[in-house]
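Project outcomes to date are best conveyed with an example. Our students and postdoctoral researchers have been running inverse folding experiments weekly, and each run begins with a structure described purely in tokens. The record below, which covers 442 residues, was selected by the lab manager from last quarter's runs and is presented without edits.
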């Protein structure tokens, strides 16, 4: 065969290779569009879950933040800056307790809106507060010649959503007090209050409050006292502790959790800020979180979708090179679609089944379909089983990436490096010039 004929055939082979690579690039873009559509569906379902949560919040009660009891007294100062004028100012004197103890149990009470489960709770709490000094309830005048007059002493208890108050009993020295809605505090209006008599000089005041409070997902307590101790128990197995203070002691098991917080006014300005009516207050909190959010996990899985498709295409292409078996771009497309629809199957199943079960079903179905298809595509069941086993390993690696969020980067990097090393090892003796039809390099 003449050199001209060889060169022409080599050019035709190169052209065919470039055309196939271009087609595969278009196939990859189409698969990216499919993954983007599935990711959009995940985001849509997440938005609907948030709408369902807002529906529960609007019809029941939202996350609860508890403040108090506090003592409140409305005062008015009158003074005369000149002979012909009289000025007045109204203000509120707020006194946090010296000691505050909160204890009780938070019982999960999940609500459902269609497919979506919303974590709500019913908490039965006992709150004990003690005051030893009442000087701040008799504030001095701030202006020369001023005279201060104050009203009744009010014990107030505030919550972020008063609709969640189910049953309340406020006692002083074991005697029930008449409780009325609202706090009479403009800064923290939602809650309840009761009028009490001013303690005698040198006498301590102790109030106890038994309250059943309902809320959604989060329960927080403001440590507005000289010393605050909070003890909570629950049957919820997956708490997330937040706020400004973590528990001093906590125990989480299959039976639930117990946690104890201890906060002093040396560590928190909550008492001073509450007395001043500030909006942002320190809290200690617990969230009833789901261990696995199917939408978050599906979204994270889709982010690895393109890497999966690329690794699979590399495997198929490598099989083409090493065995001489030709694979049509349409077959690449079908394999990529099977890999992409795995994520849609995972999303749909996880709305009805536990995520691990959904993942096993979706991965098993995808691996089974790709195994039988690869057996025909690559020319033999042995190759098909090897290909399906590789896909199963990829799904196993993906689950590890999803479940090990803190080490996902290093696992992914090691996985990619291992794949590259395997490809380089398998093709280290391959003559790429002869493969492209251009002849061996001189």
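After processing, the design step wrote out the following sequence:
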């Amino acid at each position: 065969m003449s050199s001209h004929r060889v060169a022409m055939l080599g050019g035709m082979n190169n052209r065919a290779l470039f055309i196939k690579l271009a087609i595969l690039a278009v196939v990859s873009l189409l698969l990216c569009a499919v993954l983007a559509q599935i990711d959009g569906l995940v985001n849509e379902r997440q938005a609907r879950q948030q709408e369902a949560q807002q529906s529960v919040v609007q019809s029941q009660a939202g996350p609860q933040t508890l403040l108090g009891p506090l003592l409140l007294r409305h005062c008015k100062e009158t003074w005369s800056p000149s002979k012909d004028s009289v000025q007045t100012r109204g203000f509120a004197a707020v006194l946090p307790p010296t000691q505050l103890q909160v204890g009780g149990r938070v019982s999960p009470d999940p609500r459902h809106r269609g497919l979506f489960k919303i974590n709500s709770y019913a908490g039965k709490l006992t709150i004990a507060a003690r005051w030893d000094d009442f000087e701040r309830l008799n504030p001095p005048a701030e202006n020369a010649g001023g005279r201060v007059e104050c009203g009744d002493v009010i014990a107030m208890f505030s919550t972020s959503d008063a609709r969640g108050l189910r049953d309340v009993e406020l006692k002083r020295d074991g005697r029930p007090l008449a409780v009325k809605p609202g706090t009479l505090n403009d800064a923290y209006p939602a809650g309840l209050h009761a009028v009490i008599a001013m303690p005698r000089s040198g006498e301590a005041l102790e109030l106890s409050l038994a309250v059943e409070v309902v809320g959604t997902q989060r329960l927080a307590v403001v440590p507005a006292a000289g010393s605050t101790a909070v003890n909570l128990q629950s049957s919820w197995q997956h708490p997330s502790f937040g706020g400004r203070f973590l528990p001093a002691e906590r125990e989480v098991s299959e039976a639930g959790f117990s946690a104890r917080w201890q906060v002093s006014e040396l560590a928190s300005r909550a008492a001073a800020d509450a007395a001043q009516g500030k909006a942002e207050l320190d809290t200690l909190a617990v969230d009833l979180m789901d261990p696995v959010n199917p939408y978050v996990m599906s979204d994270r899985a889709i982010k690895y979708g393109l890497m999966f498709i690329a690794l699979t295409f590399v495997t198929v292409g490598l099989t083409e090179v090493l065995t001489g078996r030709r694979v049509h771009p349409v077959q690449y497309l079908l394999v990529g679609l099977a890999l992409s629809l795995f994520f849609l199957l995972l999303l749909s199943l996880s709305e009805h089944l536990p995520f691990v079960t959904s993942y096993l079903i979706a991965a098993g179905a995808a691996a089974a379909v790709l195994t039988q298809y690869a057996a025909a595509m690559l020319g033999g069941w042995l190759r098909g089983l090897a290909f399906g086993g590789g896909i199963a390993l990829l799904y196993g690696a993906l689950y590890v990436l999803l479940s090990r969020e803190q080490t996902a980067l290093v696992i992914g990097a090691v996985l990619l490096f291992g794949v590259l090393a395997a490809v380089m090892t398998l093709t280290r003796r391959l003559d790429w010039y002869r493969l492209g039809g251009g002849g061996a390099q001189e």
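The mean pLDDT is 86. The chain has nine helices and 19 strands. The training component of this project remains on track.
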